[in-house]
Amino acid sequence: MNITTILIIIALLGISSYYAGIKKSLALGKIKKLHSTPIYHGALLAVNSSVASILFIIIWILFEKNIYTDLSLSRNILYIFSILIFLLTSFITFLKIKHEFKAREKLEKIIELFLLICSSVAILITIGIFLSVIFESNRFFSTVPVTEFLFGTHWSPQMPIREDQIGSSGAFGAIPLFTGTFLIAFIAMCIAGPIGLMSAIYMSEYASKKTRNIVKPLTEILAGIPTVVYGFFAVIVVAPFIRSSGEYFGLDIASESALAAGLVMGIMIIPFVSSISDDVINAVPQNLKNGSLSVGATKSETILKVIVPAALPGIIGGLLLAISRAIGETMIVVMAAGMSANLTVNPLEAVTTVTVQILVLLIGDQEFDSPKTLAAFALGLVLFFMTLILNYIALNIVRRYREQYE
Amino acid sequence: MNNLKSRLSKEKRFQIYGLSSILIALFLLSLLFVSIFSQGYTAFQETRIQLPISFDKEILDPNNTKDWNIIRKSNFNSIVKNSVSKIFPGVSERTNKRKLYKIISNSAEYQLRDIIKKDISIIGKKINIWVLADDDVDMLIKGNIDRNLPENERRIDNEELKWIEALESKKLIEKFFNKTLFTSGDSAESEQSGILGALLGTLFALTITLILSFPVGIATAIYLEEFAPKNNKFIDFVEVNINNLAAVPSIIFGLLGLAIFLNFFGMPRSAPLVGGMVLSLMTLPRIIIPSRAALKSVPPSIKDGALGLGASNVQAVFNHVVPIAIPGMLTGTIIGMAQALGESAPLLIIGMVAFIVDIPQTMTDPATTLPVQIYLWADTPERGFVERTSAAIMVLLIFLVFMNSLAVYLRKRFEKDIN
Q: Distance (Å) from the C-alpha of residue B300 to the closest C-alpha of chain A?
């Protein structure tokens, strides 16, 4: 016997108690006097008892290790008691079935409670993220001071195994990672910002409905392509192209460069920027536009002097969201930007980012208390807060902007 | 002041900027597709060489036991070698011979083993069998290695080229549909590697994701849209949380999975079960947000009508509002699942990145997923793997296109229903 069989037994018991409930309520006679229809009586019976016994199973499994050392004994007790609890609750509920018993209201209360619990899962996830990054980072900061981590300029997380080992100093200064991250995000925004914005303007103001219907799904395809595909594209097409055109101009460009990663990330973000800008531009009231056109402004003047200023907060919010996405993007940079932590703003050199280092530090087997692996959580903490703040500001701006025109 | 002419030309220029930015975006999209397609379409074929195999009794079963447990220990490789030498009787020197054997993939002996396992009576007979060619030969046949390059710049030297051309003239080397790609797991040899393991890993992980995130996501959306009290601090907090979670970088969810699922609860590393759980955390807000929008766009008159006839709130919502919103909610779910399908960063962190040859059988077997397999192969410089990476990407994109068109279809239906 295992958990699956028990769950199947509970399901079967649930179905039979459903019919038992219906039967009993029908047997009461004078159906018109029933507060709830028989189906509700049956359903309440089934739901009540199976929820009780499943809750028991979950709680038992979570805490059995603290009480029992013998797992099979514990499981046998669990199986017997879960069935007993089922039978007991269904017996009690069964006795309650009367004409005036408000089965529907009780069942609806349970449904609402279930929905409420489901909505709280989002909070649980956030708490989970908080706890996991903060606990481990705390352990990290007990060996490496916060100031060294945030303001140090040397990143070399390889810990020395022997005292005299060269080249692995275990330095955790994250400044090179931050500059690398922002450099790549900056390049990406230089591509995605203008192209995304201009295409959104063209689509909403100039394009005919027919072109809109064709082009919009096509740009949505760009948004749906997995990032690992973009990474591969960067490696096999963009990076060699940049390298060979660099050679043409006499520049020596590393095969992994910030420029290649940034360019491809920019391509990835174009649809993101354009869809947000499109929404924002469409939210600008028509009469603002009409007013401008009626005093003789051309379409482009209307766009540049009326629509864009009116939509500016929304556009800025959208761009901030795009930046936060660029900062958190992993696969493109891990494949195209390289792993070496250079402190540079030269886009032709290889740089590394926060996300890449998190991945590099955690891939492969690691023991869990070395500062090297814990550093990944400290980086995760920084990344989480950076994106959290950016998102919070951006979402607030966008919301306030929407309310302004509602 | 600007005169009309310059203003109009400015207008023209502005329009051209807009048009060209769209064209640039579309050009980049087509560049991406064309480059991946042109790199990858050849991977759907594989090169095989026909060998006249004689299943020698002396090698396989000298004592005539007909017992598979004895036969399976015999030296299948020597059978392959014998038959290769039979085609090229002229090659005698030892180093040359070794080079000659290398044009056959080392999977040939396993292929023979499987044939004998299926039918032991084949021992003693002579049959022509198509075996896999080595990946370098495969690349040459497909034209990915240029035959006109000087010898020291190509991976196939002149002697090998001579043998291959001899095989070609005898029609003993042919391209077939690449069955291996779809029937095997990862391998260190590109000609033997396939995506079946990754596909199953993806299937397992996404099943878990769907089971966990779909009910919870839909329930949350229904609660927030239809039941939640207005102007409640707790509800506001839930909403802020959902909106933020939707924008948290996916790699952070990997950290959560590593710290909580793996280290705290002690779940197995590299398992699709944990991968699915991590992906479901990520997918949840992406299901909730569009589902709420779908519920919101159901005309209030429908709910009011139900309430007016005496239905309770729960009855009105579940019998009247939700059925109309279902296609819209499914659209959101499918798009969320499509994003989960393409996700790889959090899976790398929980260890689904190992080199795994075996096909996963259960939810807790170590496995990779398709995007992770792409990442692993993309890291390998060999030309054979570049081709297979592109092929895997094409398979992934086909799935995504299928899911997205399903979503578009459902959205169209939903829009028709509510209008």
A: 19
Give the C-alpha separation, A313 to A292, whole Å. Answer: 20
Q: Answer whether residue B27 is part of any domain.
A: no
**Chain A residue numbers touching B258 (CB-CB < 8 A):** 132, 362
**Same domain flag for B229 and B134:** no
Extract the tokens encoding B321.
Answer: 């509002």
The last residue of one of the domains, among B134, B152, B178, is: B178
- B183 part of a folded domain: no
What is the complex's ipTM, to 2 decimals?
Answer: 0.88
- Closest-CA residue of B relative to A220 is B404
pLDDT bin (cut points 50, 70, 90) of residue B204 is very high
Q: What is the CATH number of the domain that holds B276?
A: 1.10.3720.10
- Domain A171-404's class? mainly alpha
Number of H helices, E strands in chain A: 16, 2
Q: Are residues B159 and B220 in the same domain?
A: no
Q: Is there a contact between A112 and B228 if contact means CB atoms under 8 Å apart?
A: no
Where in the sequence of chain A do the CATH 1.10.3720.10 domains occur? 171-404
Q: Is residue B20 part of a domain?
A: no
From CA B386, how far away is CA B153, in angstroms rounded? 19
Quick: pLDDT tens for B144-183.
Answer: 777 777 777 777 777 777 777 777 777 777 788 888 878 8
Tokens of B310: 């005496």
Question: Domain range spanning residue B224?
Answer: 196-418
Amino acid identity at B35: S
CA nearest to A368 within chain B: B263
Give me the pLDDT at residue A161, please.
54
What single DSSP character describes residue A153?
A: -
Number of domains in chain B: 2
Secondary structure (H, E, C), chain B: CCCHHHHHHHHHHHHHHHHHHHHHHHHHHHHHHHHHHHHHHHHHEEEEEEEEEECCHHHHCCCCCCCHHHHCCCCHHHHHHHHHHHHCCCCCCHHHHHHHHCCECCCHHHHHHHHHHHCHHHCCCEEEEEEEECHHHHHHHCCCCCCCCCHHHCCCCHHHHHHHHHHHHCCCEEEEECCHHHHCCCCCCHHHCCCHHHHHHHHHHHHHHHHHHHHHHHHHHHHHHHHCCCCCHHHHHHHHHHHHHHHCCHHHHHHHHHHHHHHHCCCCCCCHHHHHHHHHHHHHHHHHHHHHHHHHCCCHHHHHHHHHCCCCHHHHHHHHHHHHHHHHHHHHHHHHHHHHHHCCHHHHHCCCCCCCCCCCCCCCCCCCCHHHHHHHHHCCCCHHHHHHHHHHHHHHHHHHHHHHHHHHHHHHHHHHHHC
State the count of interchain CB pairs (< 8 A) between A and B. Answer: 259
Q: Closest partner residue to B375 among A228, A321, A391, by Cβ? A: A228
Enter the DSSP assignment of A33: G
What is the distance between the terminal CA atoms of chain B, rounded to a whole angstrom?
50
Q: Which helix (H) or strand (E) holds A172?
A: strand A171-172
Which residues of chain A fall short of a pLDDT of 50?
167
CB atoms within 10 A of CB B17: 16
* Chain A residues within an 8 Å CB radius of B386: 236
Q: What is the pTM of this model?
A: 0.87
Give the DSSP letter of residue A162: S
The answer on B354 and B241 residing in a single domain is yes
Q: Do A335 and B10 touch (CB under 8 A)?
A: no
**Exposure string over B288-321, b if 16+ CB within 10 A, otherwise e:** bbbbbbbbeebeeeebeebbeeebeebebbbebb
Distance of alpha carbon B49 from alpha carbon B157, whole angstroms: 18
Indicate if B321 and B172 belong to the same structural domain.
no
A118-153 tens-digit pLDDT: 888 888 998 989 888 888 888 888 888 888 888 877
Computed on alpha carbons and rounded to an integer, the radius of gyration of chain A in Å comes to 30
